[in-house]
Hints:
Layout: H1 5-12, E1 25-27, E2 34-36, E3 38-41, H2 52-64, E4 69-71, H3 82-95, E5 103-108, H4 123-137, E6 142-147, H5 156-168, E7 172-178, H6 182-195, E8 199-203, H7 217-224, E9 227-231, H8 252-255, H9 267-282, H10 287-296, E10 303-306, H11 311-318, H12 328-339
Parallel strand pairs: 3-4, 3-10, 4-5, 5-6, 6-7, 7-8, 8-9, 9-10
Antiparallel strand pairs: 1-2
Helix pairs in contact: 1-3, 2-3, 2-11, 4-5, 5-6, 6-7, 9-12
This protein binds NADP nicotinamide-adenine-dinucleotide phosphate.
Amino acid sequence: xxxxxxxxxxxxxxxxxARYTNMKYRRTGKSGLLLPEISIGLWxxxxxxxxxxxxxxxxxxxxxxxxxxxxxxxxxxxxxxAAEITFGKIFKRYFKPFRDELIISTKAGWDMWAGPYGNFGxxxxxxxxxxxxxxxxxxxxxxIFYHHRPDxxxxxxxxxxxxxxxxxxxxxxxxGISQYSAKETKKAAKILKQLGTPCLIHQPRYNLMxxxxxxxxxxxxxxxxxGAIAFSPLNQGVLTxxxxxxxxxxxxxxxxxxxxxxxxxNDELLLKVKKLNxxxxxxxxxLAQMAIAWLLKDERITSVxxxxxxxxxxxxxxxxxxxxxxxxxxxSEIEQVLKD
Length: 340
Ligand SMILES: NC(=O)c1ccc[n+]([C@@H]2O[C@H](COP(=O)([O-])OP(=O)(O)OC[C@H]3O[C@@H](n4cnc5c(N)ncnc54)[C@H](OP(=O)(O)O)[C@@H]3O)[C@@H](O)[C@H]2O)c1
């Protein structure tokens, strides 16, 4: 019997040969990099308490359908670092032969380790955090390294200088920012351009119910030539039919409750979800599919960054790509529901 686990499992994983047939790829800003219309994030469902086989199946399912982009951060878990360790194991066992077909990103900017150097936006934090991330994932480099959130107390020149340094070290191919305002984005992009490392991409929270990016950020990204990858497109699962008949035991709100709490999902919210679900059904889509398609109707969105707690959910979400067209009536009905 062959006890070489890596060889054994690599042999077992033959990705779908037709994986590039149906997925569409969009140019990231004015760069040379194409990203799939749907990307997969490892914020949840890749911690030490999650089922390893399920986590593995989600990533295999993603890659089998042309999802070439896996998004991580230093503190995804729980505990912090766990998602990168889980990913590292899955990568080593199944994905190593396909490294050049993958865009792997990680981030630093939120709290990660104790003391003054494990948080925010200093050069000290960003450079050491990426070193740790690479070690956890067993990678030589990531494709995209992000500053995870703006930090008003650190000079932007220092934070952007650290990103530029990381690229020159060969530890990241591209850099990005997350949750920066339009004004902060313009400043950051200018500094990075002067340093010779253009800002590739911005990762904002954007979904039907959280529209802050429409207030200047998307226009700025378009003008400056930076891509946009929308995170939490399903509002952490609220923009699906899952909470319409109660609170499933295995849902994020019930199972986790750190970032999505049961009492946030009140009757008023559920009434809107129900109405949106009816519109989605009239389009022959699930609400999850409509929520993803609604983001992709805007060409300024490079990719929609979904989460999934099972490969079946991911399969459901991928079907969003079958109908990205919205009539004027659909759009105004959706807006009316959200205004009510
Ligand atoms: N830059 C940042 O600051 C930041 C912050 C947050 C997230 N992110 C990134 O964005 C990624 C996605 O965030 P997210 O997980 O909040 O995204 P999301 O797509 O809004 O929510 C994903 C959750 O929705 C449910 N779901 C997914 N597909 C479904 C379907 N087809 N039908 C029914 N339910 C479905 C699942 O929840 P259940 O567990 O309830 O089944 C799943 O875990 C993260 O993994 C991370 O990479 C970035």
